[in-house]
Design brief:
It is a single chain. With 216 residues, this protein is an alpha/beta fold. It has one domain: Aldolase class I (TIM Barrel, Alpha-Beta Barrel), CATH 3.20.20.70. The protein has 5 helices and 9 strands, in the order βββαβαβββαβαβα. The longest helix has 13 residues. 37% of the residues are buried.
Length: 216
Amino acid sequence: MADASLRITEIFYSLQGEARTVGFPTVFVRLTGCPLRCQYCDSEYAFFGGERMTLKDILEKVKSYSPRYVCVTGGEPLAQPNCLPLLTALCDEGYDVSLETSGAMPVGDVDARVSRVVDLKTPASGESSRNLYDNMPILGANDQVKFVICDRQDYEWARLKVDELGLVGRVGEVLFSPSFGQISQRELADWIVSDNLPVRYQLQLHKILWDDAPGY
């Protein structure tokens, strides 16, 4: 299996900008390719190209940074079947591993040690029809569900989905994030406080620190 390969856009070391481990130094393994086209996507550069790397080479590159945390992201990492053995191999190496996925791909075969960060697509994303709701009952306390909010309609939709899917208390974190440049950061914060929602508000730390530069 060490000879298994994946197409990789980049592997880099930085601060985690989102989710449960925000602020911690993290190695990011960004896989190439994505079947979705969300209107606010900030990683279009990962849709095509990339470099074919063996699992062994990926693990060696990750190890060179001596990390505690590793995040496998994209694109949509689960669009490559060999993402699953990569996740398991990273866990076997003793890393704290998270997976950033769109929620349009099945997550049931992901190693249970991985924290699955599932991005449920809102109506304004343009890709809400791709949400695979069969994933939701699979998620548990080690997992996170994220909503990127573009407008008030998205907020109301997300608020109802949190209740409908019974996410609070079942998954580890429910995350609401303002779509960068599309909605006021303070406005979303005010809505959450006004409705006393039991969700975690998050900003994208990397965009604040590095002005949305790729490979942050």
